[in-house]
Amino acid sequence: MKAEQIAAETRPGAADIRQAREQNPKMRERDLARLLGISEAEFVASLVGHGARRIAPDFEALFSGLQRVGEVMALTRNESAVLEKIGPFEKFVNGKRAALMLGEQIDTRMFPANWVHGYAVEKDDGKDVRRSLQFFDAHGDAVQKIHARPATDLAAWTALVETLLLDDQTPDVLPDVTDAEPFTRKLPSDGVQETLRERWQGMTDPHQFHGLLKDLDIDRVSAFELAGEAWAWPLDRGSVPALLRLAASEGIPIMCFVGNRGCIQIHSGAISTVMDKGPWINVMDPAFHLHLRTDHIYEVWAVRKPADVGHVTSIEAYDSDGQQIIQFFGVRGEGNRERADWRGLAENLPKLDRAIQLGAAE
Hints:
By secondary structure, the protein is an alpha+beta fold. It folds into two domains: about 100 residues, HemS/ChuS/ChuX like domains (Heme iron utilization protein-like fold); about 170 residues, 3-Layer(aba) Sandwich (Heme iron utilization protein-like fold), CATH 3.40.1570. Strand 11 and strand 12 form a beta hairpin. The longest helix is centred in the C-terminal third of the chain and has 12 residues. The relative contact order is 0.13.
Protein backbone atom coordinates (compact mmCIF):
# COMPACT_ATOMS: atom_id res chain seq x y z
CA MET A 1 0.00 0.00 0.00
CA LYS A 2 1.39 3.41 -0.96
CA ALA A 3 1.97 6.12 1.63
CA GLU A 4 -0.81 8.25 0.15
CA GLN A 5 -3.29 5.35 0.49
CA ILE A 6 -2.26 4.65 4.09
CA ALA A 7 -2.73 8.29 5.05
CA ALA A 8 -6.07 8.53 3.24
CA GLU A 9 -7.62 5.38 4.75
CA THR A 10 -6.65 5.60 8.43
CA ARG A 11 -4.10 7.00 10.83
CA PRO A 12 -1.21 4.59 10.29
CA GLY A 13 0.07 2.22 12.93
CA ALA A 14 3.71 1.32 13.45
CA ALA A 15 3.66 -1.53 10.93
CA ASP A 16 2.05 0.73 8.31
CA ILE A 17 4.74 3.34 8.86
CA ARG A 18 7.52 0.79 8.44
CA GLN A 19 5.88 -0.48 5.28
CA ALA A 20 5.76 3.04 3.88
CA ARG A 21 9.45 3.42 4.75
CA GLU A 22 10.31 0.26 2.80
CA GLN A 23 8.33 1.45 -0.21
CA ASN A 24 9.90 4.92 -0.14
CA PRO A 25 13.53 4.25 0.85
CA LYS A 26 14.93 7.47 -0.64
CA MET A 27 12.35 9.89 0.78
CA ARG A 28 13.43 11.99 3.73
CA GLU A 29 11.83 10.71 6.92
CA ARG A 30 10.42 14.13 7.79
CA ASP A 31 8.78 14.39 4.37
CA LEU A 32 7.40 10.85 4.55
CA ALA A 33 5.95 11.51 8.01
CA ARG A 34 4.17 14.57 6.65
CA LEU A 35 2.83 12.54 3.73
CA LEU A 36 1.50 9.94 6.19
CA GLY A 37 -0.16 12.63 8.29
CA ILE A 38 1.92 11.90 11.38
CA SER A 39 4.63 13.63 13.38
CA GLU A 40 8.29 12.81 12.94
CA ALA A 41 8.41 11.48 16.51
CA GLU A 42 5.72 8.92 15.64
CA PHE A 43 7.69 7.95 12.56
CA VAL A 44 10.86 7.30 14.57
CA ALA A 45 8.91 5.53 17.32
CA SER A 46 7.61 3.02 14.77
CA LEU A 47 11.22 1.82 14.47
CA VAL A 48 11.53 0.78 18.13
CA GLY A 49 12.62 -2.83 17.97
CA HIS A 50 13.73 -2.25 14.38
CA GLY A 51 16.82 -0.11 14.89
CA ALA A 52 15.52 2.44 17.40
CA ARG A 53 15.32 2.46 21.20
CA ARG A 54 13.57 4.85 23.56
CA ILE A 55 15.86 7.06 25.63
CA ALA A 56 15.27 9.65 28.33
CA PRO A 57 15.92 13.34 27.55
CA ASP A 58 17.82 13.59 30.85
CA PHE A 59 19.91 16.72 30.35
CA GLU A 60 22.50 16.05 33.03
CA ALA A 61 23.21 12.50 31.85
CA LEU A 62 22.86 13.31 28.15
CA PHE A 63 25.14 16.32 27.90
CA SER A 64 27.66 15.08 30.44
CA GLY A 65 27.93 11.91 28.34
CA LEU A 66 28.14 13.80 25.06
CA GLN A 67 31.19 15.67 26.36
CA ARG A 68 32.98 12.30 26.35
CA VAL A 69 32.12 11.10 22.84
CA GLY A 70 34.22 13.61 20.88
CA GLU A 71 33.23 14.83 17.44
CA VAL A 72 29.55 14.67 16.44
CA MET A 73 27.16 16.60 14.23
CA ALA A 74 24.46 18.60 16.07
CA LEU A 75 21.40 19.56 14.01
CA THR A 76 18.69 22.05 14.91
CA ARG A 77 15.91 23.06 12.53
CA ASN A 78 12.56 24.68 12.06
CA GLU A 79 10.19 24.53 9.08
CA SER A 80 12.40 26.77 6.95
CA ALA A 81 16.00 26.50 8.15
CA VAL A 82 18.42 23.75 9.17
CA LEU A 83 21.67 24.47 11.03
CA GLU A 84 24.31 21.75 11.42
CA LYS A 85 27.56 22.06 13.36
CA ILE A 86 30.34 19.49 13.49
CA GLY A 87 32.58 19.31 16.53
CA PRO A 88 32.63 18.25 20.19
CA PHE A 89 30.19 19.12 22.95
CA GLU A 90 32.32 21.12 25.37
CA LYS A 91 30.94 23.08 28.36
CA PHE A 92 27.44 22.25 29.62
CA VAL A 93 25.56 24.62 31.94
CA ASN A 94 22.34 23.10 33.26
CA GLY A 95 19.21 24.96 34.30
CA LYS A 96 15.53 24.20 34.94
CA ARG A 97 14.11 26.64 32.39
CA ALA A 98 17.08 26.94 30.06
CA ALA A 99 20.40 25.16 29.66
CA LEU A 100 23.50 26.07 27.67
CA MET A 101 26.07 24.16 25.68
CA LEU A 102 29.04 26.42 25.10
CA GLY A 103 31.86 25.61 22.71
CA GLU A 104 33.83 26.78 19.74
CA GLN A 105 31.69 24.74 17.35
CA ILE A 106 28.53 23.58 19.15
CA ASP A 107 26.77 26.48 20.87
CA THR A 108 23.12 25.99 21.90
CA ARG A 109 20.40 27.29 24.19
CA MET A 110 18.05 24.47 25.22
CA PHE A 111 14.65 24.57 26.94
CA PRO A 112 14.21 21.28 28.87
CA ALA A 113 10.42 21.41 29.15
CA ASN A 114 10.18 20.93 25.39
CA TRP A 115 12.43 17.86 25.23
CA VAL A 116 9.75 15.17 25.68
CA HIS A 117 10.50 12.13 23.49
CA GLY A 118 13.96 10.68 22.82
CA TYR A 119 15.28 7.86 20.62
CA ALA A 120 18.65 6.29 19.91
CA VAL A 121 18.57 5.25 16.26
CA GLU A 122 20.84 2.93 14.30
CA LYS A 123 20.32 2.71 10.56
CA ASP A 124 22.24 0.28 8.34
CA ASP A 125 22.55 1.82 4.87
CA GLY A 126 24.32 -1.24 3.44
CA LYS A 127 27.76 0.33 3.77
CA ASP A 128 27.81 1.64 7.30
CA VAL A 129 25.69 2.00 10.43
CA ARG A 130 24.50 5.54 10.98
CA ARG A 131 23.88 6.37 14.63
CA SER A 132 21.90 9.29 16.03
CA LEU A 133 20.17 10.57 19.14
CA GLN A 134 16.88 12.27 18.25
CA PHE A 135 14.72 14.39 20.54
CA PHE A 136 11.20 15.70 19.99
CA ASP A 137 8.74 17.99 21.74
CA ALA A 138 5.20 17.21 22.90
CA HIS A 139 3.91 17.82 19.37
CA GLY A 140 6.32 15.32 17.83
CA ASP A 141 8.52 18.00 16.21
CA ALA A 142 12.29 17.58 16.34
CA VAL A 143 14.10 19.87 18.77
CA GLN A 144 17.62 18.52 18.17
CA LYS A 145 19.35 15.56 16.53
CA ILE A 146 22.90 14.47 17.30
CA HIS A 147 24.65 12.27 14.75
CA ALA A 148 27.74 10.16 15.29
CA ARG A 149 30.69 10.85 12.97
CA PRO A 150 33.66 8.71 11.86
CA ALA A 151 35.73 10.35 14.61
CA THR A 152 33.12 9.72 17.35
CA ASP A 153 34.24 7.53 20.26
CA LEU A 154 31.74 4.70 19.76
CA ALA A 155 32.51 3.08 23.10
CA ALA A 156 31.57 6.32 24.87
CA TRP A 157 28.54 6.70 22.59
CA THR A 158 27.33 3.18 23.41
CA ALA A 159 27.85 3.75 27.13
CA LEU A 160 25.83 6.98 26.92
CA VAL A 161 22.94 5.25 25.13
CA GLU A 162 22.88 2.50 27.75
CA THR A 163 22.70 5.13 30.50
CA LEU A 164 19.73 6.86 28.82
CA LEU A 165 17.70 3.76 27.87
CA LEU A 166 14.16 3.60 29.20
CA ASP A 167 12.83 0.34 30.64
CA ASP A 168 9.89 0.22 28.24
CA GLN A 169 11.09 -0.82 24.79
CA THR A 170 7.78 -2.35 23.67
CA PRO A 171 7.58 -2.27 19.86
CA ASP A 172 4.65 -0.93 17.82
CA VAL A 173 3.69 1.67 20.44
CA LEU A 174 3.53 5.24 19.16
CA PRO A 175 3.84 8.25 21.47
CA ASP A 176 0.92 10.47 22.32
CA VAL A 177 1.45 13.80 20.58
CA THR A 178 -0.69 16.91 20.67
CA ASP A 179 -1.37 19.39 17.89
CA ALA A 180 0.68 22.55 18.26
CA GLU A 181 -1.12 25.84 18.57
CA PRO A 182 -0.53 27.81 15.37
CA PHE A 183 1.79 30.77 15.76
CA THR A 184 -0.17 34.00 15.99
CA ARG A 185 1.11 37.53 16.18
CA LYS A 186 0.61 39.62 19.32
CA LEU A 187 -0.56 42.89 17.86
CA PRO A 188 0.11 46.13 19.79
CA SER A 189 -2.52 47.85 21.87
CA ASP A 190 -3.28 51.53 21.39
CA GLY A 191 -0.75 53.93 22.82
CA VAL A 192 2.09 51.41 23.16
CA GLN A 193 4.38 53.04 20.60
CA GLU A 194 5.76 55.77 22.85
CA THR A 195 6.52 53.32 25.65
CA LEU A 196 8.14 50.92 23.20
CA ARG A 197 10.44 53.60 21.82
CA GLU A 198 11.43 54.84 25.28
CA ARG A 199 12.15 51.31 26.54
CA TRP A 200 14.01 50.41 23.35
CA GLN A 201 16.27 53.45 23.53
CA GLY A 202 16.93 52.76 27.20
CA MET A 203 18.21 49.19 26.70
CA THR A 204 21.83 48.47 27.64
CA ASP A 205 21.92 44.86 26.42
CA PRO A 206 20.22 43.25 23.37
CA HIS A 207 19.00 40.42 25.61
CA GLN A 208 16.67 42.92 27.33
CA PHE A 209 14.59 43.00 24.14
CA HIS A 210 12.77 39.78 25.05
CA GLY A 211 11.63 41.27 28.34
CA LEU A 212 10.46 44.40 26.55
CA LEU A 213 8.27 42.35 24.21
CA LYS A 214 6.88 40.32 27.10
CA ASP A 215 6.05 43.40 29.16
CA LEU A 216 4.29 45.10 26.24
CA ASP A 217 2.71 41.83 25.03
CA ILE A 218 3.62 42.29 21.38
CA ASP A 219 5.49 40.20 18.82
CA ARG A 220 8.83 41.05 17.25
CA VAL A 221 7.56 42.22 13.87
CA SER A 222 4.99 44.51 15.51
CA ALA A 223 7.79 46.02 17.58
CA PHE A 224 9.84 46.63 14.44
CA GLU A 225 6.89 48.31 12.75
CA LEU A 226 6.49 50.72 15.68
CA ALA A 227 10.14 51.37 16.49
CA GLY A 228 10.87 53.85 13.70
CA GLU A 229 13.61 53.94 11.08
CA ALA A 230 16.28 54.74 13.66
CA TRP A 231 15.91 51.25 15.13
CA ALA A 232 14.32 48.98 12.48
CA TRP A 233 13.69 49.04 8.76
CA PRO A 234 12.39 46.49 6.22
CA LEU A 235 14.66 44.97 3.59
CA ASP A 236 14.19 43.29 0.25
CA ARG A 237 13.55 39.55 0.67
CA GLY A 238 16.67 38.82 -1.36
CA SER A 239 18.76 40.41 1.39
CA VAL A 240 19.44 37.15 3.23
CA PRO A 241 21.08 35.34 0.25
CA ALA A 242 22.94 38.58 -0.49
CA LEU A 243 24.14 38.73 3.12
CA LEU A 244 25.52 35.19 2.96
CA ARG A 245 27.30 35.76 -0.34
CA LEU A 246 28.79 39.08 0.80
CA ALA A 247 29.93 37.66 4.15
CA ALA A 248 31.61 34.77 2.33
CA SER A 249 33.29 36.88 -0.36
CA GLU A 250 34.47 39.59 2.06
CA GLY A 251 35.46 37.29 4.92
CA ILE A 252 33.11 38.90 7.44
CA PRO A 253 32.51 36.59 10.44
CA ILE A 254 28.83 36.24 11.30
CA MET A 255 26.60 34.80 13.98
CA CYS A 256 23.66 32.76 12.69
CA PHE A 257 20.76 31.68 14.95
CA VAL A 258 18.25 28.94 14.04
CA GLY A 259 15.70 27.82 16.62
CA ASN A 260 12.52 25.96 17.48
CA ARG A 261 10.48 25.45 20.66
CA GLY A 262 13.19 23.39 22.35
CA CYS A 263 16.54 24.58 21.06
CA ILE A 264 18.38 27.53 19.53
CA GLN A 265 21.65 26.69 17.82
CA ILE A 266 24.27 29.27 16.90
CA HIS A 267 27.10 29.44 14.40
CA SER A 268 29.84 32.01 15.00
CA GLY A 269 32.60 32.59 12.49
CA ALA A 270 33.48 33.10 8.88
CA ILE A 271 31.74 31.24 6.06
CA SER A 272 33.12 30.39 2.63
CA THR A 273 31.03 28.06 0.44
CA VAL A 274 27.56 29.38 -0.45
CA MET A 275 25.47 27.64 -3.11
CA ASP A 276 21.89 27.47 -4.38
CA LYS A 277 19.83 24.33 -4.93
CA GLY A 278 16.22 24.88 -5.92
CA PRO A 279 14.53 27.09 -3.32
CA TRP A 280 17.34 26.42 -0.83
CA ILE A 281 20.42 28.52 -0.26
CA ASN A 282 23.13 26.52 1.47
CA VAL A 283 26.37 27.08 3.33
CA MET A 284 28.55 23.99 2.98
CA ASP A 285 31.71 24.54 5.02
CA PRO A 286 33.73 21.81 6.76
CA ALA A 287 32.23 22.31 10.23
CA PHE A 288 29.10 24.33 9.41
CA HIS A 289 26.15 23.59 7.16
CA LEU A 290 23.13 25.86 6.73
CA HIS A 291 20.08 25.07 4.58
CA LEU A 292 17.54 27.88 4.19
CA ARG A 293 14.27 27.91 2.24
CA THR A 294 14.32 31.32 0.58
CA ASP A 295 10.76 30.85 -0.72
CA HIS A 296 9.53 30.77 2.90
CA ILE A 297 10.92 34.24 3.61
CA TYR A 298 8.02 36.71 3.71
CA GLU A 299 9.78 39.72 5.21
CA VAL A 300 13.25 40.73 6.35
CA TRP A 301 14.17 43.40 8.90
CA ALA A 302 17.38 45.16 9.83
CA VAL A 303 17.27 45.92 13.54
CA ARG A 304 19.43 48.02 15.85
CA LYS A 305 19.53 47.39 19.59
CA PRO A 306 21.56 49.29 22.21
CA ALA A 307 24.43 47.25 23.67
CA ASP A 308 27.10 47.64 26.34
CA VAL A 309 29.13 49.60 23.77
CA GLY A 310 27.17 51.45 21.10
CA HIS A 311 24.58 49.30 19.37
CA VAL A 312 24.43 46.01 17.49
CA THR A 313 22.70 45.29 14.19
CA SER A 314 20.78 42.14 13.32
CA ILE A 315 19.22 40.90 10.09
CA GLU A 316 16.09 38.86 10.79
CA ALA A 317 13.88 36.84 8.39
CA TYR A 318 10.24 35.94 9.08
CA ASP A 319 7.63 33.72 7.47
CA SER A 320 4.14 34.78 6.40
CA ASP A 321 2.78 34.20 9.94
CA GLY A 322 5.34 36.54 11.48
CA GLN A 323 7.40 33.70 12.96
CA GLN A 324 11.18 34.07 12.95
CA ILE A 325 13.06 31.79 10.55
CA ILE A 326 16.65 32.91 11.07
CA GLN A 327 18.63 35.73 12.62
CA PHE A 328 22.12 37.09 11.89
CA PHE A 329 24.58 39.30 13.78
CA GLY A 330 28.21 40.17 13.24
CA VAL A 331 30.65 38.37 15.54
CA ARG A 332 31.43 40.68 18.47
CA GLY A 333 33.24 40.14 21.73
CA GLU A 334 31.63 41.48 24.90
CA GLY A 335 32.82 45.02 25.59
CA ASN A 336 33.79 45.59 21.96
CA ARG A 337 32.09 47.75 19.39
CA GLU A 338 30.24 46.12 16.53
CA ARG A 339 32.53 45.32 13.61
CA ALA A 340 32.52 48.09 11.03
CA ASP A 341 32.51 45.62 8.12
CA TRP A 342 29.41 43.83 9.45
CA ARG A 343 27.62 47.11 10.16
CA GLY A 344 28.46 48.34 6.69
CA LEU A 345 27.13 45.13 5.14
CA ALA A 346 23.89 45.26 7.13
CA GLU A 347 23.22 48.95 6.55
CA ASN A 348 23.78 48.69 2.81
CA LEU A 349 21.44 45.80 2.10
CA PRO A 350 18.58 46.97 -0.15
CA LYS A 351 15.89 48.72 1.89
CA LEU A 352 12.24 48.28 1.10
CA ASP A 353 9.38 50.66 1.65
CA ARG A 354 6.86 48.97 3.96
CA ALA A 355 3.95 49.55 1.59
CA ILE A 356 5.88 48.08 -1.33
CA GLN A 357 6.87 45.09 0.80
CA LEU A 358 3.27 44.25 1.69
CA GLY A 359 2.06 44.72 -1.84
CA ALA A 360 4.72 42.43 -3.28
CA ALA A 361 3.81 39.66 -0.84
CA GLU A 362 0.08 39.68 -1.58
